Amino acid sequence: MSAGARPVPAAGAAAAEPPKPAPRMRALRTARLRLQPQRAAHADEMFGVLSDPAIYAYENAPPTSAHALRERYARLESRRSADGSQLWLNWVLRVPAQGLIGYVQATVLPGGRAMIGYEMASAHWGRGYAQEAVGAMLDELARRYGVRAVSAVLKRPNARSRRLLERLAFTTAAADTHGPAGVEPDELLMHRSLGVDGRGAEPPSPAAMPARSARETT
To answer: pTM of the full predicted structure?
Structure first.
């Protein structure tokens, strides 16, 4: 299961002031999961998780080696893009007594906006873990980082991921906003607004939500 931001900047995005210093990432807890800030030390275990070919049925590819994944995770520990305009927040997902099963991530943009992505090993699909983890991340984005509008991009055939986002109150953006936002014809752009408590608020203007960020995705 996967969805989210790709490593292409939003076309025509206006320059923005870098965000204010962000709160330190913290571990999150749900009824069944522990969301831990991702670090290079997680790479060896996560390499096994992300080597599951089922994850990549629609897009992306598995990491080439544990070493390459470790180097990437080390770079992402900066938690910011090179120009400082984006926050890069990654949490690995741990089931106590079982181990890591995937990750969730958010790219926080200026103006209270964010883009999200997630990947989870197929052995753990269908158990509600993804909804639990993404829901916890959305709550943290709203409460701690001031995010009010969230977007995700996914491949149209990825029905499992679309159902997940719909259960989390995301809606599909109008078709005429996909092209200007850099969304490919075989992709969907989905949005959700957040209240201060992580719950729904007034829907965002699709034109205000870029579909892409400068971050890389695993």
So the answer is: 0.84
